[in-house]
Amino acid sequence: MDFLRHAYRLYNQSHIPFFAASLAYYALFSLMPLLFLLIGIFGLVLSGNKALLEAIQQRLGEVALLLFPTQPDLAQGLLTFLTRRAAPLTAGSFLVLFWSASNFFAALAYAMGVIFQTPPGFRNRIIALIAPGALGLGIILLALGGLSLAFVLRYLPPELGFLRGSLEHVLPVLGAAGLFYLIYRILPRPAPRHLHALLGAGFAALVWEGVRLGIPALLPRSQYELFYGPLAGFLLAMLGFYLSMWILLVGGLLARVLEDQTAPRA
């Protein structure tokens, strides 16, 4: 009971729902520069491939003519702008994305500092600047690892076919637990012990996996769109971001409570 009372008191003191909502809004709106970055990269690809540009121009022209019959040159103007402005659009959106991502990680570091009662400092800004690049590298490595694993699983002998289904369920949990563990070990200072950070990360990963599987079953998008129309996708994304941030912070709270329970008493 002391454990639960202490956890509840810290939950209220840390304002976890407030920080989860703030981080969710920050993360969602920080994705807008990513969209412009992808558009800029697409423009660079088109400017270097004339055959692809002509094929897309033909298809896009047909669609534009059906939707906007009074503006037949709309597709040509759009593609011309995209190919000519691809380089500055890509560079500008990359800088804005890096800036917004660093601010998000700075806010996350501040929230972790509130949970672990550590004052904010210059170190949080340094971590916030390094974190976007480290996260991008981690995503690339995870993608390469996933492709390698998929290649290996494809050629498994029939008697080991049961591993395919098992790994498909276990690997997302292990990946999420590893990410949470790194956050709990890097952001707060002093960092929790390895075991406590691992327990908090494991708890958060299991809850996150349950939410990931449960939301599509509990809130089917087709039914949700009956009430909210075009806003359904945005609201579901907002809910997913909020729950992800809440789970991340609650896992850190669990690590903090475990630290307090094992700390020597005066």
Give the termini separation. 21 Å
Q: Which blocks of ≥5 consecutive residues have pLDDT under 50?
A: none
Strand content: under 5%
Mean pLDDT: 78
Tally the helices: what do you get?
A: 11
Please describe the biggest sheet, giving its number of strands, its sense, and whether it closes into a barrel: none
Task: Give the CA-based shape.
Answer: globular
Helix coverage percent: over 70%
**N to C succession of SSEs:** HHHHHHHHHHH
**Structural domain count:** 2
Rg of Cα set: 23 Å
Task: Please give a structural write-up.
This protein has helices at residues 2-14, 16-29, 32-47, 50-67, 74-84, 86-115, 122-154, 162-186, 194-218, 221-228, 232-262. 84% of the residues lie in helices and 0% in strands. It is built from 11 helices and no strands.
Could you give a short description of this structure?
This protein has helices at residues 2-14, 16-29, 32-47, 50-67, 74-84, 86-115, 122-154, 162-186, 194-218, 221-228, 232-262. With 266 residues, it is mainly α.
